[in-house]
Amino acid sequence: MRIAVYGASGFTGGLAVAEVRRRGFTPVLVGRDEERLRKAAVAAGAADAEVRVATLDAPGALAGAFADCDAVVNCAGPFTSWGEPVIRAAIAAGRHYVDTSGEQRYIKRILDTYGAEAEAAGVAVVPGLADDGGPGDLIAHLTAGRLPAVEELVVADLRQPGGASRGTARSMAFVEEPLDYVDGAWIPAADHGPASLGVPGSDEEVPVALFGLPGVATVPRHVPARRVRSVIRADVAALFLGLTPDVVESVPEVLDDEARRAGRWLMAARADDGRGGRAEGWVTGPDPYGLTAVIAVEGARRLAADEGRAGATGQGRAGVLTPAQAFDPADFLDFLAPHDVTWQVSAVPGQGTTTR
Q1: Is residue 84 exposed (0-12), middle (13-18) or buried (19+ Cβ within 10 Å)?
Q2: Are the C-beta atoms of 323 and 128 separated by less than 8 Å?
Q3: Which one, of 39, 34, 38, lies nearest residue 55 by Cα?
Q4: Which residues, including other chains, have CB under 8 Å from residue 192's CB and lie 6 or more apart?
Q5: Calpha distance 327→312 (Å, rounded)
Q6: Domains (range + CATH), the chain
Q7: InterPro entries of this UniProt entry (predicted)?
Q8: What is the pLDDT of residues 221-242, one digit of tens each?
Q9: Does the reported pTM lie above 0.70?
Q10: What is the pLDDT of residues 166-186, one digit of tens each?
Q11: Is the four-CA dihedral 158, 164, 165, 167 of positive or negative sign?
Q12: What share of the chain is helix, strand, coil (3-state, %, to 5)?
């Protein structure tokens, strides 16, 4: 299996190349700078990998770089600025596509815009397949499924402050006003919501703030909730909202291995039925950047191997899809268990608990 990694010379892109090689597949590094791509190949342990130079302003060359690959993993952010040309090239080449974006409005725009083109090409496009958007969408679906009806669903990123790459800082500097989903429409988020949330697995309750997570763009497409909103820890929100161009450029381009592996991500979901019924779910794992590469490469592999949700094949998997639409949620989360990922969904007494 040949997997093209666009933005392969970046921090997350290099991890994705290494993961493609670790899985025994053939990586194809694609980007705009041949020298940087070759250095990235060596650093990823794939010195013999093929390097292809293609820029965003040359759509034909970009589609040609993807043409003989089985899937495309796009790691080049900010996606708001650079994501769509890669999607158009993947569709033109007839290749499945995933990306590692966490930018809420970008993900919504892709889900709203490219469905017909992807369906016509017979390919699946799955944006936001990273450590927040992927597991967040999957655990939200499983959590909501514990209730007969959902009045409100809150998706929360409860990870503690930690190291971030310059690419993440650049993407967060592009964060726009967050959205809520209410009564069938996406609207600017209201300035209210839960003031704090309990941290799964502990007695700790932390202040949270409204923030534009991918789940608000993705979850309403497969969960019939009246309202969907997203929050993160208030201290993390303050860090992101304080990013200025000078601060962004002062952030290290990469994290060293020790700092990267010391991080831990935690996505949670809380669903209420409006009548006192509640379900809660969470999924957590180490090494946010390393697991993003694992998640994105596995998603690309499943699309290329035609291992979709509920055994769907062929045209049933074409279009622009959320992670929970493209893949069986529990099966995908279980796949991550060897990487020290655990998850749990629980409901009010009498409705049971599932733990992994």
Answers
A1: middle
A2: yes
A3: 34
A4: none
A5: 9
A6: 2-128+291-328 (3.40.50.720), 133-287+334-355 (3.30.360.10)
A7: NAD(P)-bd_dom_sf (IPR036291), Sacchrp_dh_NADP-bd (IPR005097)
A8: 999 999 999 999 999 888 777 7
A9: yes
A10: 667 666 666 678 999 999 999
A11: positive
A12: 40, 25, 35
